[in-house]
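User: Can you predict the 3D structure for this chain?
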Amino acid sequence: MSALCIQTKDVTKKFGENVALSNINLSIEEGEFFSFLGPSGCGKTTLLRIIAGFESLTSGSLLIDGQDVSKIPAHKRPVNMVFQNYALFPHLTIADNVAFGLVARGNKDKNDIRTKVTEALQLVRLEQFASRYPQQLSGGQQQRVALARAVINRPRVLLLDEPLSALDPQIREQMQEELKSLQRALNLTFIMVTHDQSEALAMSHRLAVFSAGRIEQIGQPRDVYEKPASVFVARFIGQTNLLEATVKEIGRDFILVDCGQENLFRIPCDDTKTDAKIQLNDSVFLYVKPQAIRFVGTKSPSSGSGGDGINAFDAVVESASYQGHTTEYVLKMKNDCRLKVVAAGLECKSEGDTVQAAFDILDCSFLKAASEKEPVALAYAKV
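Assistant: Here is the predicted structure, written as structure tokens:
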């Protein structure tokens, strides 16, 4: 197991009466690419700024390599930050921008500075642009300059504040790969703030999902995507179908739920994996990803939960949106609930078509919550 690099213990931050962060406990390992994910105003950037030293704690403690740095000013912490707007100096050349951190820390050896600047620019493949100015580079190139400037001092932690948000989609995908490659090459701890779910899933070793100043879930991307710990996470991570349902039957390894209007579905359940107990007539959320739903034919009297491992239902195609390699559908069920379906681009359904769709029982799960803010995960189909 890797050594811990960052630890937050009961970190709370208040701005007046507003609680931006509430009792945040988090551990990030050395050499990990970790992302803070969540909507605007959830507290993720505030926590990043606390780690950087730009914001003070109201209570709690922040440890880097086991040392409490809560009272240590930003310029004395072993961290560097890449800002959303790059923050390059327009009057300095690319080489001078990259060298700025070395000079600011008192390095006066011109040969050493020149060598380290060249090495940093080589890491981001920009050594040929050393004599240019920021305004002469593209957005992606400016982002790489900001990265070179941030890593030249080899900080223990590199903080990234939505670093790719200003880039065009194609350049953004390219920069995702470059960031991952840079992190592997340097073996530094990267902490990235983003509100883009696909970005966090694609780039992170682990991620924390924030909501209203709290952490809803911490885990590897696949676990967070396939096994959300709360209704909020299920709705926030990727496209998700959540249907309100009532428990009608409890079996040894499944429950049968009623979503209304004879829409009955069977969901896996293993009591040995959870402390939460489900009872008849409990309200739950049926959870199934759009990619797990497929078309199986036209309207049929066989809708419902079958013994063949399939949950089937009748619906009407309310909308169809062609995306190239896929088509996104919205299906309206008999109970007026709507489900999203992502199907292969070769599927050809039209608005108004009556269809039967289905999903494997092992591709669904359920969540139960006393309230949407404090949900309890009950069972998952995939481990």
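The mean pLDDT is 87. The radius of gyration is 25 Å.
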